[in-house]
């Protein structure tokens, strides 16, 4: 793989079980580049290490006054110099290629994982850690992958030189053969401590990055509440912790570097001292002494790569661990792809909340908690942040569909869509059904003024489609970015389109036109809009109120406003005090309306008393007559009893 061939058609399936396994997987997948770098590295290092032998031969030729050997030695030195130049040039080229291609592979893997997980990624891994992995960590991982081949070439060169010295001059070669392994292994006891300090530094740097990322994301809110200084002090403390950790780590690496300088110097002194004694005794020639001395001195160059590979591994191991952690994340429910690829049709239903979205209708969802609305939107798109029952599309669980089929069926536009840099034509060049043209989508999203602004901001673009959009659309206002993102979503023309607050940053007049355009363009297609705007709600075929994680009311906007207090509180944005004030006003109006009724009731009660009095007056003679009748009855009974006794 060459740099010009990037990106990879398929970056592969990484071994993300641990950081070392991930590094080993990367190395195996770049075996061709590693072997190429190894070959050029051997040419370079062996050419460098051959120079001392050439120098020794030249000195001995001068001592022996042999012009022929001196000329041959000069020719050998020219060949060594050519090997050094060619080997170094192509080694650097191969090494940089390995570095960049390894980092690009990791970035592609991370991008693919982010696209699979969606916004659930930042809920499971801190946003600052994701940024650190995708920027600084990929460079350190690429550094280690690239350094392996150079280290291997350096190690083989050291072995070849030691063997050559043993053959060339055994008396001095033994000293070098014993001393070089000591030099190479002397720093091993210090590596665990250096690695721990490097890990601690990376941890502190990651926390500082997370804090900085979170602070930047919430800067507008911090300015609103006056919390800038508080978070600035926190970042200062985090930054100082990173500095102290970096200093402690640098001290350990400085000690390792000092040892790498000191021990070769001691070995060189020992070789010179022993060689001088051998030369005095006549056991070696001056040329042999110069050769061995030069060889030991030149070996300090390949030995430096032992320190580099230790540093590269120490810094890349925590980076690889963090990258493996991100790459090991999976969707909450595993789609094994057992179901045949295809896009089901029918109603969209969420068993967790009871939300039913009829097919071909415009459904608005009102939720008092914006975070809960965002999570529900993700669920409808098949990207749940937590475990739970799958959303059903036409009775088919989205989690049982392949990811491509699920995304073809349901498209979710979150409340903060991202615009990539490039021309407007490139921005709108997205997978689409072809039924919706860019002009129709832009008109429905009311992007006329956005196109004018893009043309005015681009000096060489007469056609608005060729106008340039800056990174994340920073040259546009929030409402303009929102409308362009809506147009991009409309062009895709998915079977189910889920929009989370698509008009929160536009004015009411534009919002009303967008609502009408959205309804017309999506006629016959299933559309779900999470909003609390009355303008959008009034044009929806169906409105559902979600409260405490479940659907509590379904109807149309005007009906729910009058019959559902919780819906009215969200849509009209009434506070608790305003609700209580409204209740008091209603009670006062009721009291005012009830006062005449109370007067009528009192009048009725007075009439009732008067009637009772009149009734009592009219009843008195009747009572007297009743008493008289009772007296006559008693008299008759007495007379009858007397007659019976007489009889």
From TrEMBL:
Keywords for this entry? Membrane, Transmembrane, Transmembrane helix
How does this protein sit in the membrane? Multi-pass membrane protein
Keyword Membrane listed: yes
Q: Where is this region: Disordered?
A: 571-597
What's the short name of a Pfam family annotated to this entry?
Answer: ABC_tran
**Does Membrane count among this protein's keywords?**
yes
Q: Where is the composition biased (Basic and acidic residues)?
A: 581-597
Name the record gives this protein: ABC transporter
Organism encoding this protein: Streptomyces brasiliensis
């Amino acid at each position: 793989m060459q740099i010009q061939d990037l990106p990879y058609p398929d970056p592969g399936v990484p071994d993300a079980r641990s950081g070392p396994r991930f590094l080993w997987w990367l190395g195996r997948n770049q075996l061709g580049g590693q072997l190429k770098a190894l070959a050029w590295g051997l040419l370079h290092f062996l050419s460098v290490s051959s120079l001392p032998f050439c120098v020794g031969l030249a000195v001995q030729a001068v001592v022996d006054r042999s012009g022929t050997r001196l000329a041959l030695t000069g020719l050998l030195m020219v060949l060594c110099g050519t090997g050094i130049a060619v080997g170094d040039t192509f080694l650097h080229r191969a090494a940089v290629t390995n570095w960049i291609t390894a980092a690009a592979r990791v970035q592609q893997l991370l991008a693919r994982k982010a696209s699979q997980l969606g916004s659930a990624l930042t809920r499971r891994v801190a946003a600052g850690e994701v940024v650190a992995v995708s920027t600084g960590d990929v460079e350190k991982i690429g550094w280690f992958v690239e350094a392996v081949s150079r280290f291997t070439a350096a190690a083989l060169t050291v072995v070849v030189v030691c063997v050559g010295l043993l053959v060339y001059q055994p008396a001095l070669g033994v000293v070098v053969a014993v001393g070089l392994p000591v030099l190479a292994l002397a720093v091993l006891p210090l590596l665990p401590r250096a690695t721990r300090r490097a890990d601690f530094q990376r941890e502190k740097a990651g926390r500082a990055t997370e804090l900085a990322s979170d602070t930047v994301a919430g800067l507008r809110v911090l300015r609103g509440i006056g919390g800038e200084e508080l978070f600035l002090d926190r970042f200062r403390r985090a930054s100082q912790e990173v500095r102290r950790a970096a200093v402690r780590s640098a001290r350990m690496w400085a000690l390792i570097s000092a040892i790498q300088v000191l021990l070769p110097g001691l070995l060189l002194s020992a070789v010179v001292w022993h060689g001088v004694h051998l030369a005095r005794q006549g056991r070696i020639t001056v040329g042999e002494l110069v050769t061995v001395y030069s060889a030991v001195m030149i070996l300090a160059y390949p030995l430096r790569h032992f320190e580099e590979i230790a540093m590269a591994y120490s810094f890349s191991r925590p980076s690889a661990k963090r990258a493996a952690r991100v790459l090991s994340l999976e969707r909450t429910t595993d789609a094994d792809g057992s179901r045949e690829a295809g896009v089901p049709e029918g109603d969209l239903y969420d068993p967790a909340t009871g939300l039913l979205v009829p097919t071909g209708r415009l459904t608005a969802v009102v939720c008092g908690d914006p975070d809960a609305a965002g999570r529900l939107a993700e669920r409808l798109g098949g990207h749940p942040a937590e475990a739970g029952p799958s959303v059903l599309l036409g009775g088919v669980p989205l989690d049982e569909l392949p990811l491509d089929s699920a995304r073809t069926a349901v498209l979710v536009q979150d409340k903060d869509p991202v615009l990539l840099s490039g021309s407007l034509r490139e921005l709108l060049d997205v997978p689409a059904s072809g039924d919706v043209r860019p002009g129709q989508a832009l008109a429905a999203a009311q992007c006329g003024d956005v196109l004018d602004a893009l043309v005015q901001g681009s000096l060489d673009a007469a056609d608005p489609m060729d106008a340039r959009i800056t990174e994340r659309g920073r040259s546009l206002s929030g409402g303009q970015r929102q409308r362009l993102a809506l147009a991009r979503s409309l062009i895709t023309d998915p079977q189910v389109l889920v929009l989370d607050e698509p008009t929160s940053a536009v004015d009411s007049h534009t919002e009303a036109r967008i609502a009408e355009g959205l309804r017309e363009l999506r006629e016959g297609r299933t559309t779900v809009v999470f909003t609390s705007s009355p303008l959008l709600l009034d044009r929806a075929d169906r409105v559902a109120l979600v409260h405490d994680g479940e659907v509590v009311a379904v109807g149309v906007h005007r009906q729910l406003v009058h019959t559902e207090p919780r819906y009215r509180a969200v849509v009209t944005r009434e506070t608790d005090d305003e609700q209580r004030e409204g209740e008091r006003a209603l009670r006062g109006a009721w009291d005012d309306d009830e006062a005449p009724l109370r007067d009528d009731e009192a009048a009725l009660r007075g009439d009732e008393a008067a009637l009772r009095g009149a009734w009592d007056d009219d009843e008195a003679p009747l009572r007297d007559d009743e008493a008289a009748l009772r007296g006559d009855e008693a008299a008759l009974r007495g007379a009858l009893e007397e007659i019976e006794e007489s009889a």
